[in-house]
Design goal:
Layout: H1 3-15, H2 19-40, H3 52-73, H4 89-98
Length: about 100
């Protein structure tokens, strides 16, 4: 390998060890994982339809489905409880009239 390229590679590898670079790269890694999931798990590489409008609809629905799947698999940490919500009017009526 020529000397200038070797020096560039050495600097790049040293920079990759910094916390700032790793934090910045983690964002890209998440985006790359999402793109890979939609291509491999949901077949987004080949569109079922012809035309830009129908293709866009397929992409939007695939992205929404991917988000729904991810949300259904999300398990919040134990030390971060969900905030208490107010009961709806219907829930209050049901408790009042149907609770033993």
């Amino acid at each position: 390998m020529p000397q200038p390229l070797q020096e560039i590679q050495k600097r790049a590898r040293a920079e990759q060890q910094t916390a700032d670079w790793q934090r910045h790269y983690a964002i890209r890694a998440g985006c790359e994982a999402t793109a890979s999931e939609t291509v491999h798990a949901h077949g987004l590489r080949h569109c079922r339809y012809k035309g830009l409008a129908k293709t866009h609809v397929q992409h939007v629905l695939t992205a929404a489905g991917t988000n729904i799947i991810r949300l259904s698999q999300y398990d919040p940490p134990e030390d971060h409880p969900r905030p208490a919500r107010r009961s709806s009017h219907l829930q209050q009526l049901c408790r009042r009239y149907f609770s033993p």
